[in-house]
Amino acid sequence: MGGHDHHGPPFVVPKDPSIYKLENAPQLVLLQKKLAEHGLKDPWIRNEIWRYDVTKWGTQAGRVRQFFLMGARVGIPLFLITIAAEKALGIDYSHHHGHGENHHGSHSKEH
Q1: Which of 29, 71, 85, 100 is 20 to 30 A distant from 4 in Cα terms?
Q2: Alpha carbon distance 6, 86 (integer Å)
Q3: Distance CA 25, CA 51 (A)
Q4: Which tens digits make up the pLDDT trace of 42-96?
Q5: What is the spatial distance between Cα 24 and Cα 52, in angstroms, rounded to a whole number?
């Protein structure tokens, strides 16, 4: 009562943080190299590896591509089916409003 019907936890907390390796996060490896060029080191970088781990999330370009194409597998065929159905049924959405008439009627002012 009072709660939502969930089937298990929404996430799983890893038992061992060593599953996240810096080598799996190229962006953080690059950051670490750039910091080292200036004699700096980020002692907390290990806490961010899970966000950039390409083995878990893929590359940034892959995520962007997936975002823009996620509905394409279903959307493009449905779009083509819709066009084919409209052509087969003779559906035409082009409406012609008169023969060169002013579309604004008496609302337009001429000087």
Answers
A1: 71
A2: 43
A3: 8
A4: 989 888 888 888 887 787 788 788 888 888 889 999 999 999 999 999 988 887 6
A5: 8
CA angle 92, 76, 74 (to 5 degrees): 125
Distance CA 11, CA 9 (A): 5
Quick one: pLDDT band at residue 97, thresholds 50, 70, 90? low
Interval 15-29 mean pLDDT: 84
Angle between the 72-89 and 60-69 helix axes, to the nearest 10 degrees?
20
pLDDT surpassing 80 at residue 13: no
Q: Is 49 left (phi over 0), alpha (psi -120 to 50) or beta?
A: alpha
3-state secondary structure string across 31-97: HHHHHHHCCCCCCCHHHHHHHHCHHHHCCHHHHHHHHHHCCHHHHHHHHHHHHHHHHHHCCCCCCCC
pTM: 0.46
CA dihedral 60, 62, 68, 74 (to 10 degrees): -150
